[in-house]
């Protein structure tokens, strides 16, 4: 049952990145859109994420609950040493959701408050995945020091380092790329298709650039990232699959296939996560001194894991069909 719980944890993380990440990316795309086209971008983004943006955060909640219940030691260590980036990330989630609701459902659409909502939405859409990536980079970089004797060493330099920040900007670029690809399929006019295609090219280039920066920062911070990814056949295969899917994505887009490219974009990001995560599985958090927090050893008692596993299995029988119907119903509504 432990592997069932771990599987649900990975599943929730991947889906949150693919769906919630694309939501954040919509704000990132809007942030880097000219003033003349912002209203068009907002309209298309709302049509795409408006009906289901709240449901996407369900995957973050599930991942947190799994860690809290099933792996309390790992949960407490992450929340203790990385509480600053986590707090900023959660504040970003809250601010973004609030601004999104107010700017779309406010009775008055042309006052100064709309400008405030728009600014909060786009900047929190940028900040949230930035600190999500910083947190992810910190847990694998061995920068967390349980023996730290100062506040800065324990709670600031654990995440404020070149590698973690580079992973943060790489995450932002990936979210923007996902959103641009998804929005291409939502655009109704050729002008918007071209605009979002251009944004996808820019975000793709940014992801490649920041990806290179991640490897460079890994060498500076003595993080064995290149060995993790290229030192085993599974991760290497995942990297090759991600690269091939990217080439195929741009080929199909040139042929006007705007729907299937979403699947390829999601597959590409999933392969990136697999390539990084496979090598150091089951370790989740690696700290200074060579100690690792493992999903296979630092878990709750067997009775708790069994109950959690059954709860996830039974709950998925209700949640997944309902979520699928939610996507289906709003898609049919847009087609009508």
Automatic annotation (TrEMBL):
<comment type="similarity">
    <text>Belongs to the cytochrome ubiquinol oxidase subunit 2 family.</text>
</comment>
<keyword id="KW-0472">Membrane</keyword>
<feature type="transmembrane region" description="Helical">
    <location>
        <begin position="120"/>
        <end position="140"/>
    </location>
</feature>
<feature type="transmembrane region" description="Helical">
    <location>
        <begin position="53"/>
        <end position="75"/>
    </location>
</feature>
<dbReference type="GO" id="GO:0009055">
    <property type="term" value="F:electron transfer activity"/>
</dbReference>
<dbReference type="GO" id="GO:0016682">
    <property type="term" value="F:oxidoreductase activity, acting on diphenols and related substances as donors, oxygen as acceptor"/>
</dbReference>
<dbReference type="InterPro" id="IPR003317">
    <property type="entry name" value="Cyt-d_oxidase_su2"/>
</dbReference>
<dbReference type="GO" id="GO:0005886">
    <property type="term" value="C:plasma membrane"/>
</dbReference>
<keyword id="KW-1133">Transmembrane helix</keyword>
<dbReference type="Pfam" id="PF02322">
    <property type="entry name" value="Cyt_bd_oxida_II"/>
</dbReference>
<protein>
    <submittedName>
        <fullName>Cytochrome bd-I ubiquinol oxidase subunit 2 apoprotein</fullName>
    </submittedName>
</protein>
<keyword id="KW-1003">Cell membrane</keyword>
<keyword id="KW-0812">Transmembrane</keyword>
<feature type="transmembrane region" description="Helical">
    <location>
        <begin position="81"/>
        <end position="99"/>
    </location>
</feature>
<feature type="transmembrane region" description="Helical">
    <location>
        <begin position="308"/>
        <end position="328"/>
    </location>
</feature>
<feature type="transmembrane region" description="Helical">
    <location>
        <begin position="230"/>
        <end position="253"/>
    </location>
</feature>
<feature type="transmembrane region" description="Helical">
    <location>
        <begin position="160"/>
        <end position="184"/>
    </location>
</feature>
<dbReference type="GO" id="GO:0019646">
    <property type="term" value="P:aerobic electron transport chain"/>
</dbReference>
<feature type="transmembrane region" description="Helical">
    <location>
        <begin position="196"/>
        <end position="218"/>
    </location>
</feature>
<dbReference type="GO" id="GO:0070069">
    <property type="term" value="C:cytochrome complex"/>
</dbReference>
<feature type="transmembrane region" description="Helical">
    <location>
        <begin position="6"/>
        <end position="32"/>
    </location>
</feature>
<feature type="transmembrane region" description="Helical">
    <location>
        <begin position="260"/>
        <end position="278"/>
    </location>
</feature>
